[in-house]
Write a structure and sequence with these properties.
The chain is mostly helical. It has one domain. About 65% of the residues lie in helices and about 0% in strands. The longest helix is centred in the first third of the chain and has 28 residues, at about 5-35.
Length: about 120
């Protein structure tokens, strides 16, 4: 297992904390807002700012375990959603994983190949 101060590990943790978590939580907030619930928007959570979504303990767990962590959950009032609490909340819930899937497919691993090649050639 690579160490915590390995450059690739630090880069991956930074991307997760500064990009993946905010995009995931923003997707929940945006879909809820589009479906009629402005709770997250009124609390300033309809934002891609990482500080609005950062959970300090979840970030520490991510750094310590390098396996899992979490951001602050976006508040949603299911009874305010357009299609009712059951369908509306299902759509809001699906938005986070869908955003992760979309962001992972738009930033293919090929973008990291030059950095990985340089890193591995320096280690051998």
């Amino acid at each position: 297992m690579p160490g915590l101060f390995d450059p690739i590990t630090l880069l991956a943790l930074a991307v997760i904390l500064l990009v993946s978590f905010p995009v995931h939580e923003f997707a929940h907030a945006w879909v809820a807002y589009r479906l009629g619930d402005d709770t997250a928007a009124r609390q300033g959570r309809l934002s891609l700012n990482p500080l609005r979504h950062l959970d300090p303990f979840g970030a520490l767990v991510l750094i310590a375990t390098q396996a899992f962590g979490w951001a602050r959950p976006v508040p949603v009032a299911p009874w305010r959603l357009r299609y009712g609490p059951r369908v509306g909340h299902a759509l809001v819930s699906a938005a986070g994983p869908a955003s992760c899937r979309a962001s992972h497919s738009t930033a293919p691993p090929a973008a990291f190949r030059p950095a990985l090649r340089m890193y591995w050639s320096a280690r051998t």
